[in-house]
Amino acid sequence: MELAHRMLPSKQSSVTCMPGELLDALVIFQLGPMLVNMGMHIAAIKYVYSVLPPGDEDLKGTEVQAIIKFKRALGLDDVDAANMHMEIGRRIYRERLETSDRDADMEQRRAFQKLIYVSNLVFGDQSAFLLPWKRLFGVTDSQIDIAMRENAKSLYSSQLKSIGRGLDIGTLIDVRRAQLAYKLSDEIAAEMFREHAKKLVQENISSALDILKSQHWWIYLTAEPCDYRDSLTQAVEEVKSVIKFNSLLTILSKHPQADRFACGLGPISLGGEYDHDRRADDLKILYKAYATE
């Protein structure tokens, strides 16, 4: 019995004599899942951070869907994903506190605003309790509103560039969908559309005036007779383009499905822009040219 007892290893000796490879395997077995989760956590933070453009660059409009797809691919729940967004917020906030350069501070502020905007869109209605901006960073409701509004306006401004004088219905519908996705209010979207349409009209008017005035100065400087009919025709074509564009704006604003189109459709008035004497004289020149043609 005594001999048998000596042959049985004690618990202490079994651990002490355990081969190093086996001990490493047990450690990896126990810590492996935690290490994998940590690696996934770090990788996810790096990915989201890389998707957001630097502070001096505007959003492209693809960031929200890219992050949502990435979150689903990893199988992350909203709570864990939201915590990662907060980690990025802490990093940006810390970098801003550490910088003494005014331009760098402004860049970090814009980066933080973009993070707020993209994060709120990623988590939608749940962002109010998943993303504690106010509690963690002392951000006010007004500052959050500014971040949401300014980034939405920037994205919508890019969308408006696709709208030309032809007013394609498909494009108008796409722009409306983009506005809703960007969470931009109808009032601001309508104002931006009207400004865009007015800019298109002003381009035609400026072009027509340049044509007429260049012809006038050519006659004045050379005192030579010349055929001004071609120039007059070109100028009138610019005016006709304005009239056609304004007519389309009016017709589409009364369309049965106008609520599916971009906000702000309607005739453009140049009142206020052309109300002083010089501008009024310019419009008189265009009117005379149009009547002459």
UniProtKB/TrEMBL annotation:
InterPro entries: TIC110. This is Protein TIC110, chloroplastic. The lineage of its organism: Eukaryota, Viridiplantae, Streptophyta, Embryophyta, Tracheophyta. GO terms for cellular component: TOC-TIC supercomplex I. GO terms for biological process: protein import into chloroplast stroma. It comes from the Eukaryota. It comes from Dichanthelium oligosanthes.
